[in-house]
Amino acid sequence: MTQIGQETINRMRTLTELHAVPGFEGEAREYLKEQMKPFVDEIIGDNMGSIYGVKKSKKENAPKVLVAAHMDEIGFMVTEMTKEGMLKFTPLGGVSSDVWLSQTLQLKTRDNQYYNGVVGSIPKHFRTGKESGVAIEDMLLDVGAENMQQLKDMGINIGDTIVPRTNLEQLTENRILAKAWDNRYGCLVGLELLEAVKDIDLDVDLYVGANVQEEVGLRGASASVNLIEPDLALVVDCSPANDMKGHIGLSGALGEGVLIRILDRTMILSERMRDYLINIVEEKDINHQYFQSPGGTDGGEIHKALTGIPTAVIGVCARYIHTSKAIYDVRDYLNAKQLLVEIVQDINKEKIEHLKYN
């Protein structure tokens, strides 16, 4: 039976149901700040909004290890209000246009009011047979308003943000459906890492937290690296699984373990870091799978910052990410958490120096 506690499920639910798109991550930031407090010596942040809890080593001049999630999720921003009471919107992050018609979305106003609505689609009765795919810029969100004035009376304005309206649901013992597992996974695993090592003396200063604006081009990572100046970085992020018709190559499969991400479009895992990770997962018998990603992570910015930072992505995969719903396997989460805990307890100055090429 999968050993995952109710507290972890509760945290998953809270984190995935937050409303926090790129540039508007306040809900996630405040949750992390409050939840990390019992486990860290201090909490720091940069001017863009990224936040990190710091657990100091008792050793002087200890190296700094960064565990970096990102707190933003894909979503949309209101760009136009029509006289009929409909809302036009633009994407925040990479989304496909073919998955949003008839989906329920949640709008958040600048004064923290929430409204649910549906993305309009043409009923079969009115279709002519000439319709083709609808571009996102042509879609309309219907929140029930009768006209533009009612939208204004509801407190809705251009620039308000939109996310999928999806509640977490445990489908089976090991599989969960939720939105925003990319990348509330990273927020959760970072928080539970801090909890796991709170009473353990480490050989490193541990910085655990989350960046902003990853989904719109890895924008927050550079600021946090300049703030912390880490010696080693572990990026915790969720990647797409492509296993609905079986395990295809290195594309990720649910239940097959933590991802050993050897290559993506923003970073190549170094030979030394690869061997270090493999040694740990094999020694500790942690379920793992090699992974090649068509996307990227904050590691793409972090690994080339300063004079170069040894970096690895400790990830999990999920089906249907960057849509209104994702499905993931809690066993993969537990494998990733175990690997992070093992690395943080194992790593020291000498091993970090070995991972560098100087």
From TrEMBL:
<feature type="binding site">
    <location>
        <position position="182"/>
    </location>
    <ligand>
        <name>Zn(2+) 2</name>
    </ligand>
</feature>
<dbReference type="InterPro" id="IPR051464">
    <property type="entry name" value="Peptidase_M42_aminopept"/>
</dbReference>
<comment type="similarity">
    <text>Belongs to the peptidase M42 family.</text>
</comment>
<feature type="binding site">
    <location>
        <position position="70"/>
    </location>
    <ligand>
        <name>Zn(2+) 1</name>
    </ligand>
</feature>
<keyword id="KW-0031">Aminopeptidase</keyword>
<protein>
    <submittedName>
        <fullName>M42 family metallopeptidase</fullName>
    </submittedName>
</protein>
<keyword id="KW-0645">Protease</keyword>
<dbReference type="InterPro" id="IPR008007">
    <property type="entry name" value="Peptidase_M42"/>
</dbReference>
<feature type="active site" description="Proton acceptor">
    <location>
        <position position="214"/>
    </location>
</feature>
<feature type="binding site">
    <location>
        <position position="322"/>
    </location>
    <ligand>
        <name>Zn(2+) 2</name>
    </ligand>
</feature>
<dbReference type="GO" id="GO:0006508">
    <property type="term" value="P:proteolysis"/>
</dbReference>
<feature type="binding site">
    <location>
        <position position="215"/>
    </location>
    <ligand>
        <name>Zn(2+) 2</name>
    </ligand>
</feature>
<feature type="binding site">
    <location>
        <position position="182"/>
    </location>
    <ligand>
        <name>Zn(2+) 1</name>
    </ligand>
</feature>
<feature type="binding site">
    <location>
        <position position="237"/>
    </location>
    <ligand>
        <name>Zn(2+) 1</name>
    </ligand>
</feature>
<dbReference type="InterPro" id="IPR023367">
    <property type="entry name" value="Peptidase_M42_dom2"/>
</dbReference>
<dbReference type="GO" id="GO:0004177">
    <property type="term" value="F:aminopeptidase activity"/>
</dbReference>
<keyword id="KW-0479">Metal-binding</keyword>
<keyword id="KW-0378">Hydrolase</keyword>
<dbReference type="GO" id="GO:0046872">
    <property type="term" value="F:metal ion binding"/>
</dbReference>
<dbReference type="Pfam" id="PF05343">
    <property type="entry name" value="Peptidase_M42"/>
</dbReference>
